[in-house]
Design a protein that fits this description.
Layout (H helix, E strand, L loop, with lengths): L11 E6 L7 E2 L4 E17 L10 E18 L5 H8 L5 E7 L9 E15 L7 E8 L4 E4 L3
Antiparallel strand pairs: 1-2, 1-5, 3-4, 4-7, 5-6, 6-7, 6-8
């Protein structure tokens, strides 16, 4: 059996559009963990057996909406503090991309693109350790799936 091609964990990463250069996406320094979650929200209804209503009914589901959220955490890089605050401290959403693979890997790289709101920004520090940052973000509309192209 052939060994599968895999991705290094560091190649799962969230990038934000540079506010000074539309179409350029930057990865703020310091985040070492990223988790993307895709959610399908559904409505449920019990559908009875018409021939024997005493049988347990089966639940059927209809998709009502899709959602994307992402969390990230890592060390608080001094040069990223202003970027984190700018991304959080706004009422409008920001354009972002969630990558799997190198951003120039046309053979295997993929990403989701859309607008997101950073809903939580947490900065912490403990004596004897490096300061940490963590964030939570959620989509603001559709996240589209893309293969990386040349």
């Amino acid at each position: 059996m052939a060994k599968p091609k895999t991705f290094r964990g560091s190649l799962v990463a969230l990038y934000f559009e540079d506010p000074d250069s539309a179409g350029q996406f930057l990865k703020p320094c310091g985040l070492t963990e990223h988790t993307a979650t895709f959610t399908k929200n559904m409505n449920e209804v019990d559908v009875p057996d018409c021939d024997d209503p005493d049988l347990p009914s089966w639940i059927e589901r209809e998709v009502s909406s899709l959602d994307f959220s992402v969390t990230g955490s890592g060390v608080l890089a001094a040069d990223a503090v202003d970027k984190w605050w700018d991304i959080f401290n706004r009422s409008e959403s920001v354009r972002a991309r969630m990558y799997i693979g190198k951003i120039d890997d046309i053979a295997n790289g993929r990403y989701w693109a859309g607008n997101i709101h950073v809903s939580q920004l947490e900065i912490s520090g403990n004596r004897g350790e490096k300061a940490q940052v963590s964030l939570t973000a959620a989509s603001d509309g559709e996240m589209t799936y893309h293969e990386i192209t040349a």
